[in-house]
Amino acid sequence: xxxxxxxxxxxxxxxxxxxxxxxxxxxxxxxxxxxxxxxxxxxxxxxxxxxxxxxxxxxxxxxxxxxxxxxxxxxxxxxxxxxxxxxxxxxxxxxxxxxxxxxxxxxxxxxxxxxxxxxxxxxxxxxxxxxxxxxxxxxxxxxxxxxxxxxxxxxxxxxxxxxxxxxxxxxxxxxxxxxxxxxxxxxxxxxxxxxxxxxxxxxxxxxxxxxxxxxxxxxxxxxxxxxxxxxxxxxxxxxxxxxxxxxxxxxxxxxxxxxxxxxxxxxxxxxxxxxxxxxxxxxxxxxxxxxxxxxxxxxxxxxxxxxxxxxxxxxxxxxxxxxxxxxxxxxxxxxxxxxxxxxxxxxxxxxxxx
Length: 354
Known about the structure:
The chain is mainly β. The chain is built from 3 helices and 29 strands. The protein has helices at about 45-55, 265-270, 285; strands at about 10, 20-25, 30-35, 40-45, 65-70, 75-80, 95-100, 105-110, 115-120, 125, 130-135, 140-145, 155-160, 165-170, 180, 185-190, 200-205, 210-215, 220-225, 230-235, 240-245, 250-255, 260-265, 295-300, 310-315, 320-325, 330-335, 345, 345-350. It has a 5-stranded mixed beta sheet, with no helix packed on it. A hairpin with a 5-residue loop joins β21 and β22. The radius of gyration is 20 Å and the shape is globular. Mean pLDDT is about 80; it is low at about 50-65 and about 275-295.
């Protein structure tokens, strides 16, 4: 693969069905539809060049890359952070771009680099090294500025349905390593899964579950986000690079860059908090009698072999019982996992992105 086609970033639209995803290279950003797979359009640097030159700066190098792009729902609105190839700004400015009308509808310059940002139905959440800015998506007013602990990975979780819960690394003076802030109840919960650093965490789409992974115990822990109650623990892993909860809260997966992708049922956690699981989904019946045992692991996905030179770039659940996996060799894999069978899932569809 040529250097110009090397994947610099990926993201799925932050909506419940993950219907679109973005691939960024030195040549720009391309939007794809997931199911059925279809190339959409290019959010090319050439489209933005003249507008950025006129409206923002007299001199700017935009030869390539954006460092981050996010799609708002399934719309023509995008959040964009340029790559760190401009000495004046680097990655310090967030641009909200309307691709249909070809115009910038909002921009905000920060004092330090943007490490991560999220678009939800209600909020724009921008993560800096030790602060998080929360903007109202309707009027772009700042509704909250949160001081966090050092956060070089840009970790943040925010509920997408109501936007009432945000999760972030705690400051040093807090009682726990992770803070859960609830805007609705105006309360804080501090979690301390281990004395060591929490490497990764993820919040479910509706803000119901929080999953964490830390190096000391090498365990994944599942919490009820509204109370901080520990609901379940999954077996030890050496490391975790990807961690996500399916939008219906039935499953969780975790993986390294080049390892098995393990898919587990969340039946136990759902039962503890009293969440009803529809028997039509057959999840309760499948796991009846051994919900509390270690063999609740549902499936493993492994696209690697000893000769493989590629890695996972992005993994997410699809709308049904499937995973979408983007690999560094420029392919999208759609993998279905069976609810009634434990074992290795089948790679059912593979598409070339370039």
